[in-house]
Structure formats: structure tokens, C-alpha cells
Amino acid sequence: MLKSLVNLFFPKVCYACHNLLGDHEDTICVTCRHDLPVTNFHFDNNNRVEKTLYGRAQIKTGTALFRFEKKGNVQQLIHNLKYKGYEDIGFVLGNWLGSELKTLKIYEDVDMVIPVPLHKKKLKKRGYNQVAKFGQQIAQNLKADYRDDLLVKITNTRSQTKKGRISRWINPVELFALKNMNTIDAKHILLVDDIITTGATLEACILVLKQINNVEISIATMAIA
Predict the structure, then answer these.
(1) What does the pLDDT read at residue 167?
(2) Which of 9, 170, 192, 195 is 20–30 Å from 47 (CA)?
(3) pTM, rounded to two decimals
């Protein structure tokens, strides 16, 4: 009765379609879970994440959970995660993708999951990194360390969403820096982010991480545009 009363005044809705959630649904309704455009890149050879970075930054493998469709439910989820404070979305998507990656041999030796960092000013304004819970859940599934204190953003840039690839690219040394470099020596790093469009941000991160000897880098994002 108490639960019903709470739901009456504070109804739980799906963060994708905004319809009311059923008693056994949480964060995303069953219908949206079924209809979300999953890529299955990590299960097949038609991998657009790897193709996006081919010839630009060397990675071991890469994947994205969803295809990003303008005005679609994936856009709604990422918007709610980044700007509305609904961090549970990151938890759900990280557990979703992590539970799949842990079944694949190529991800068995991932040592560390590192999120693409926010600049400290943006982090203070938003209050959280939108990919933190996503990365934490993937790390838990892969039994890997989660480290958000090694890769830091040193240049505060404006939103990249309306820029082309050339105008987005800045010397990675001017954007990101590494702390405690010896920590990732000879490690397999899984770099996580919310969405990959041109790949410029991930490329910049990879080039900085690749300054370390014998490091292997893979990528996992929530979506690919």
C-alpha cells in the first residue's frame, strides 16, 4: 500500500519513452528495452567503431551498445543522463553491455576501465561524469579496476556536437594529460564514453594513453552516431 501511495504522488516513468513503469520494471520499460537499436558490434565483424578510428588511432577492439538515432529513445536516454541527473541510466547501460562483454574472450584480459574525463569546471557544474556509472558497471562485470584519476582533461572545450571532425581536433597534448603513468604500463585499458560521432575525443585520449609502453586500448561507448 505504501509503495502504491508513493507511486501515486511520485510516479516512476521510463527514462526513454516517459510512460509509467510497471511493478517489475526499473529505469527503462520492457518495451523500450526490446526496441532499442542495439548494434551487437562485439558479436560480429561489422564493427563501425573500429572502422571509425582505423588509420587514426590504434585499438585492440571496440564496440558501442546502441545506434544513435536523432529524436530516438537512445538520444532521450543520453540527454536525461547528461543533463537531467538520471545517473541510474549509466548503471543500467553499463550492466547491460558489461554482461555481454564478459562472455567474450577478447575482453577477458581487460585490466582497467577508464572514462573519458570531464574538465574540472564542467565536472563541478554538472556534479558527475555521465559515463562514471557506465564504466563502473562494465569494470565490475569484467572484474577490472575502475580508475578515473589517471586521465584528466586539462583544456575546457565547448560542446563538440555541432563541430566537424577537423574543427573538433586539437593536439591531444593540449586536451588531456596522464597522472601516475606507470600505473597503466603494459595494461589492457578499456576506454569508455557516452557517444562516438567523429571519434575525435576518443582519438585524442588514445594518442595520450599510447605514450605509455606496451599499453593496449579498447573502446566501449553507449552509442555510435
Answers:
(1) 46
(2) 170
(3) 0.89
